[in-house]
Specification:
7-stranded mixed β-sheet; globular; alpha/beta; Aspartate Aminotransferase, domain 2; 2 domains; 40% helix; Aspartate Aminotransferase, domain 1; 4-stranded antiparallel β-sheet
């Protein structure tokens, strides 16, 4: 008899976004003419930049001619893209070889696949609030999870002195959902902790392009000692609008070893066994992101999202509501006013002002009483949503 993976039975229902969609659809049916402002989704709203579009078109034309046609590419990534990514890191002072860069179909996919490198007997530390897939991927593999709650007092930043006995450590900076960003001192403390314990940090850098403060690190490999304890997973989804195109990359240093086994070499073996790589067309589009023109163009798009975040932040500043994010990050993590719970605040916004955000409870128990707004919408919708929010909160204060 076939024996299923019984750990799937331990998963909690993935109800957060389904419940949001259900509530929103029900309201829309009752109020078909209502203009809904969706500020909760983490998807981008601006198109791919011209440099990427041109590269994609060129790659399609390449596939139409026998002399430029490409079939299978190297499973770990085309040399032209691996070299472009390594050079991009080099311009930031981080020395990587192209052989340490692995092209992927996106950070979400890779965060699940990378667990193949580690025994299910290892324990995973997940600071919360957290991207729900961190937890679910480890539940599926039967791994013990150590939950590390963060809170307002600590700026929603996890400290290593509370890390316990975990073997895998998830760090996300800028963080989803809180928008909190780790400085060099905190990242160095985590690197020192991981090296001392022999743990491995899985560093999710999907939002690094939103960092503007030159004092804040974009990559964990800006920290001395990280090459012996860290894997970095990054994405072009939020950096360059590839949410519907699907492309990312993973960095595994050659020095990263545990119990005599080299994790970079293990990942080469994994990818050459389990993957046929990413298409030539997408990799050509991805390479365009790292050109001088591509970088200039994506900065223009990122500027728009950052402007949205600034509008949200200034609104909450005027209202005196505490929040993280908004600066160096595309998310606002705000405290629900009046002691409201996350879902109660969601219902209030939907009913009173037709603004949709994301209840913090969906990101872990310590997210209860908190709420996430996304800066990835259009500027007009963002301004209108914040104007509606400000009027509502001020009205609540008068009642």
């Amino acid at each position: 008899m076939l024996i299923p993976n019984t750990h799937y039975g331990e998963l909690k229902d993935s109800y957060l976004f389904a419940r949001i969609a259900e509530k929103t659809a029900a309201y829309q049916r009752e109020h078909p003419d209502a203009r809904m402002l969706r500020m909760g989704i983490g998807d981008v709203s601006r198109p791919l930049c011209p440099a990427v579009i041109s590269a994609l078109h060129g790659a399609v034309e390449d596939q139409a001619r026998a002399e430029t046609f490409h079939g299978y590419l190297p499973e770990c990534g085309a040399p032209f893209l691996r070299e472009a990514i390594a050079a991009h890191y080099g311009r930031r002072g981080v020395s990587l070889s192209p052989e340490e860069v692995f092209v992927s179909s996106g950070a979400s996919d890779e965060l699940g696949h990378i667990l193949d490198l580690f025994s299910p007997e290892s324990a995973a530390l997940i600071p919360e609030p957290a991207y729900p897939a961190y937890v679910d991927a480890n539940v599926m593999s039967g791994r013990r999870i150590v939950h590390l709650p963060t809170d307002r007092a600590g700026g929603f930043l996890p400290e290593p002195d509370m890390a316990g006995d975990a073997d895998l450590i998830y760090l996300c900076s800028p963080n989803n959902p809180t928008g909190a960003v780790m400085d060099r001192a905190l990242l160095r403390a985590w690197v020192d902790h991981a090296n001392a314990r022999g743990a491995v940090i899985l560093f999710d850098a999907a939002y690094e392009a939103f960092i503007e403060d030159p004092a804040l690190p974009h990559s964990i490999f800006e920290i001395d000692g990280a090459r012996t304890c860290a894997i970095e997973i990054c994405s072009l989804s939020k950096t360059a609008g590839f949410t519907g195109t699907r492309l990312g990359y993973t960095v595994i240093p050659k020095e990263l070893e545990r119990r005599g086994m080299n994790l970079r070499d293990m990942w080469v073996r994994n990818r050459t066994t389990k993957s046929n790589g990413v298409s030539y067309i997408l990799q050509k589009g991805g390479a365009a992101v790292f050109t001088e023109e591509g970088q200039r163009q994506i900065r223009e798009t990122l500027k728009l999202y950052k402007s949205n975040a600034a509008v949200m932040g200034s609104t909450l500043d005027r209202l005196g509501i505490w929040y993280t994010g908004g600066k160096n990050a595309p998310y606002i993590w705000m405290e629900c006013p009046g002691g409201l719970g996350s879902w109660a605040f969601f219902d209030l916004l939907l009913r009173e002002i037709r603004v949709i955000g994301t209840p913090g409870e969906g990101f872990g128990r310590c997210g209860e009483g908190w709420f996430r707004f996304s800066a990835f919408g259009g500027p007009e919708d963002t301004r209108e949503a914040m104007a509606r929010l400000e009027e509502l909160i001020r009205r609540m204060g008068r009642e």
